[in-house]
Amino acid sequence: MAQSMALRATKKANKKAPFMVELYRSAIGKKYVMAITGLFLTLFVVGHMVGNLKMYLGTMSGGEFAYHIDEYGAFLRELGSPILPHSVFLWITRVLLIGAFAVHMHAAYSLTMMNRRARVTNYATKSDYQAANFASRSMRYTGTIVILYLVWHIMDLTWGVGNKSFRHGDVMNNVDSSLSRWPIAIVYIIANVALATHLFHGLWSFFQSIGWNNPRFNGAKRKFAIGIVTVITLGNLSFPLAVATGSVKADQSKYAALTSSHSDK
After folding, report:
1. Residues 33/103, Cβ–Cβ less than 8 Å
2. What CA–CA distance (Å, rounded) separates 101 from 16?
3. φ and ψ of 59, to 5 deg
4. Spacing of C-alpha 110 from chain mean position
5. Per-residue pLDDT tens for 69-84?
6. Contact by Cβ (8 Å): 107, 33
7. 213: which residues sit within 8 A by CB, 6+ positions away?
8. Which of 3, 72, 133, 187 is the 20 to 30 A CA-CA neighbour of 89?
9. Among 119, 141, 139, CA closest to 129
10. Measured between alpha carbons, how far is 15 from 12 in angstroms, rounded to an integer?
11. Is 70 exceeded by the pLDDT of residue 164?
C-alpha cells in the first residue's frame, strides 16, 4: 500500500505541466516573457507620448480654441463604437497593460530569485553590465517608482483625485489644472527620469533576453537604447515643464462661458 502511494506520488511529481508553463518556469522562458512584455509596454509609452504631443496643437472653431488632445481623448473613449459601448475599448487596453505589468514584474522577480539561488549576480555579460551599470543596478528602484507613478497618474488625470478643477473627459483642462502646480510637475519629472533609466537598461537587455548578445553589436545596441529613451524622455518631460511654466495653458474662457450659461438656467 505504501509503495503504491509512493509510486503514484512519484508519477504525479514527474508529470510535466503544459509546454508554455514549463517554458515559463525556465530562466530562458522568463527572459523571453520579460522581453516581450517589456517591448509591448515600451510601444505603449511611445504611443502615449506621441498622443500627448497633441496638447501643443489646436484649431479655432466657432470663435473658440479647441485643443487636439481633447479630440484625441474623445476618440479613445469612442474607439470601437458602435460595436463596443463607450470607453470599453479603452478599459480593455488598460486591463491588458495591467496584465503585462503584472507578468513583467513576476518574471523579473522570479528570475532574480533564480539568479540568487544560482549565485549569479546578473544574467547580462560583463561588458553589458559595464555599459548599463547604474541603470542595471537601479532597476528594482526605478521599477518601483514607475509603478507608483502609474497609480498616481491614473488617480490624477483619469479619476481626478486631489484635483478640484477636474472635469471628466476634459483632457486639456485636467492636464493644466494638475501640472500647473509645481509640486505635481516635479513628481512627473522625477517619475519620467526614473522611467528613462528603467527603459534604457530594459531596451539594452532586450537583446540579451532573446539571445542577440554578440559583442560586435554592443555599440549599435547602446545607440538604439539611447535614441529611443532620449525621444521618449524629451517628449514626456516637456509636458510638465511647458504647463508649469505657463508656456501651454488651457483656454479657460470657453469654460467660464459654459459655467455662466448653466447658472443662468
Report:
1. yes
2. 27
3. -140, 150
4. 21
5. 998 999 999 988 889 8
6. yes
7. 125, 128, 207
8. 187
9. 139
10. 5
11. yes
CB neighbour list of residue 90: distance below 8 Å, 6 or more residues apart: 76, 77, 79
Alpha carbon distance 174, 153 (integer Å): 12
For 64, phi and psi rounded to 5 degrees? -120, 150
Q: Which residue do the cell numbers 505541466 mark?
A: 17
Three-class secondary structure of residue 249 per DSSP: coil
Phi, psi of 188, deg, nearest 5: -65, -40
Which of 137, 139, 126, 134 is CA-nearest to residue 218? 126
pLDDT value, residue 169: 85
User: Are 46 and 232 in contact, with CB atoms under 8 Å apart?
Assistant: yes
Residue 249 contacts residue 180 (beta carbons within 8 Å): yes
Using the predicted structure, report yes or no on whether residue 13 has a pLDDT greater than 60.
no
Residue type present at position 5: M
For residue 79, give the 3-state DSSP assignment: coil
Whether the CB-CB separation of 30 and 104 falls below 8 Å is answered with no
Which backbone phi and psi does 159 adopt, to 5 degrees? -105, -15
Q: What pLDDT score was predicted for residue 119?
A: 57
Q: ∠73-77-83 over CA atoms, to 5°?
A: 150
What are φ and ψ of residue 261, in 5° steps?
Answer: -65, -35
What whole-number distance in Å separates Cα of residue 41 and Cα of residue 46? Answer: 9
Nine-digit cell at 22? 514549463
Contact criterion met (CB below 8 Å) for 79 and 89? yes
Please report, as a single letter, which amino acid is at residue 93: T
**Three-class secondary structure of residue 163 per DSSP:** coil
The angle at the Cα of 98, spanning 97 to 99, to the nearest 5 degrees, equals: 90
* Contact present, 56 and 72 (Cβ < 8 Å): no
